[in-house]
Write a structure and sequence with these properties.
The protein has about 100 residues and is α/β, with parallel strands linked by helices. The protein is built from four helices and five strands, in the order E-H-E-H-E-E-H-E-H.
Length: about 100
């Protein structure tokens, strides 16, 4: 599964990205500020990072967009996701369904 994580450089979303990658998923993500130490840790796991919220990130065609709390209505990427009818979820929901289910 390919996840594109919006707000990937936050503590929770970065940790979620690492869990997803270690579970074998393809992970990409974006944030307003992509900088160390989180950027280095994520890149070391093979996670591609994009700085900014360009709606062209829809072209990555992930299976699901995982949306962090930093992303609000009016953000160009989330608006593009909604307009396109793309599949999306929150970080906590993805964690509950993909990692914690059955535990």
């Amino acid at each position: 599964m390919h996840l594109h994580i919006l707000g990937i450089c936050g503590t929770f979303m970065g940790g979620l990205a690492a869990l997803a990658r270690e579970a074998g998923h393809r992970v990409t993500g974006c944030d307003a500020g992509v900088y160390p130490p989180m950027s280095e840790q994520l890149r070391a796991l093979g996670i591609e990072l994009i700085e900014g919220w360009d709606a062209a990130q829809l072209d990555l065609a992930p299976d699901i967009f995982v949306v962090g709390n930093v992303v609000t209505r009016g953000n160009p990427l989330i608006e593009a996701v909604l307009d396109a009818g793309a599949r999306y979820t929150s970080g906590p929901q993805w964690l509950a369904e993909q990692v914690l289910q059955g535990r």
